Amino acid sequence: MSSTLEASGTTYEDRNPATGAVIAHVHETTREELDAAVRSARKAFDGGKWSNMAASRRAKVVYKMAQLIAERAQELMMLEVRDNGKAVSTAKGEMGAIVDCFEFYAGAATKTYGETMPPPLPTYLANTVREPVGVVGAIIPWNFPLLLASWKVAPALAAGCTVVLKPAPSTPLTAIELGKIALEAGVPEGVLNVVTGSGRELGQWIVEHPLVDKIAFTGSTATGKLVAKTAADTIKRVTLELGGKSPTIVFDDADIDAAVAGALYGIFYNAGQACEARSRVLLHRPIYDRFVASFVERAQNVRVGNPEDPQTHVGAITLPEQFEKIKSYCEIGRSEGARSLIGGIPASLDGECANGLFWTATAFEAEPGHRIAREEIFGPVVTFTPFEDEAQAVALANDSDYGLSASVWSNSIGRANRVARAIRSGTVAINTPYAVFPGVPFGGYKQSGYGRELGMETMRLYTETKSVLTYVGEKAMNPLGL
Fold first, then answer.
1. Which of 101, 275, 330, 353 is catalytic?
2. Is the per-residue pLDDT at 9 higher than 90?
3. Which residue in 43, 121, 167, 189 has the fewest CB atoms around it within 10 Å?
């Protein structure tokens, strides 16, 4: 079994969402083929060629993957742009983050330490070791295909696990390339297996499979709940990185120009198709009108266009059903009484992108109870809501089923950190829209999931703790006196 599952049989069409053109025919993995991939991963793990390899050697292989990705960054970037529809400027930044992620976990491979504990009795030594959890099923969404694959594959491989990687049906191409890169870097056969398919059942089969020890899933909260329920039947370890409705909070003592720039990025990068997108902007009443006017003025300069154009800010919407969802929420917002400030309609392009899926940069003034201010839209749609004081700002930020990310803008370090502590969110960025970096744990509170990615603690989620007790007494033990 190779790292990328290859077999004859049925295929499905993979289309460029910016043009509608077919860019690949992708293999439909059958249940039997999925079982073969899992068994290949199981055999590779149990055989110990990877799981028992010296951590320093694993580290070199993972680092080699980082080097190969860096060498092919341009090729991978354009493949991602055409498969996903994201702006090339966004994809370029992701490539650097992917290399950083593999480099970080290459270093982490040799730092999965156990502990030495006070002995329970003077004649004992007590210590723990960290051992790889086993076969990991990594299920990746369509919004950041290679980036989120790296968040799972890199720590899993560094820990000594084997992996069955399932990319989203609509964006499989960079995952296939990652499987090839793994082989070239020296990852043994069967350690990383890539499976593709157009239906939801493939992910379900992975979660159900009795030989899979852990599921690492990124996707919607609704699907995450199903993953957790199904995984419970076989007591799998589960990491869930799910949805969000993340706030940007701007106080009246903030640098307003910087906060506007940050809010524009926070919702419009990756066409708003990001779980940590700051889609709710909560504004201190004294600066509300000034902020909204500045945002709307600058948002008119947001370029929606051909993803391959370096000047494009907002590329294509990846899926037809996601396009319809965005359209529906804009209609819901207007019907509920939210005030449309800009956009709210499809964007029409000429030339090769005439048949693509594009949406205008969109903003509404909304009440906290409006659905567009409460439910995850996953598109370039932001809402503005005023607050009167710090307590109300925190209450509005926390009045959500989600708790993934947030930004706080204030020139008072005391206030900013006080509010950051009060927000129920896995990440809070102060005076910056950037919240995701290799080495900094990322994950959610509440229905945004559990477990953390990107940090050192992630290694604990791909390993088990084994306690080792060693009797060192000089007198042989005879507990029963027989």
1. 275
2. no
3. 121
